[in-house]
Recover the amino acids of this structure.
């Protein structure tokens, strides 16, 4: 009683259940769903080699669709909103200093190379380049006419 239809249904069910236990970003679920689809096709196609090839093709298509439509899109590394930090050390004009941002100490440089930022001064995080933040003092932005 090892009918290909039951075999594909068992494989599909196991793969779908494995997604619940070991989350793999819908890869196992897509493979399980494609095995269930192939179980339906096994009623019409009696060749196991063809069924295996169909299963691989359907699995790849479903995984690509899951990655494209279900997975969240990654944000650009450039900061989208102005976020604030506070300087730990002074940031001399054109040199780096230390800023407390999100509970951690970061190396920082002033976006405008002619401005000196004093210790314990609030700054806006403009961008991030590796482990170094580009900042502007809030006093500078409040006085400008943006």
């Amino acid at each position: 009683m090892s009918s290909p239809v039951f075999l594909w249904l068992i494989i599909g069910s196991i793969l779908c259940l494995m997604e619940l236990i070991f989350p793999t970003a819908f890869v196992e679920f897509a493979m399980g769903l494609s095995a269930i689809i192939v179980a339906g096709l096994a009623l019409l196609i009696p060749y196991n080699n063809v069924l295996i090839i169909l299963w691989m093709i359907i699995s790849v298509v479903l995984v690509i669709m899951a990655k494209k439509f279900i997975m969240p899109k990654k944000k650009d590394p450039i900061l989208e909103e102005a976020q604030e930090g506070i300087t730990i050390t002074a940031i001399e004009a054109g040199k780096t200093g230390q800023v407390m941002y999100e509970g951690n100490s970061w190396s920082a440089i002033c976006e405008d190379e002619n401005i000196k930022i004093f210790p314990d001064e609030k700054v806006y995080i403009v961008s991030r380049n590796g482990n170094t933040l580009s900042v502007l003092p809030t006093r500078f932005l409040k006085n400008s006419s943006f």
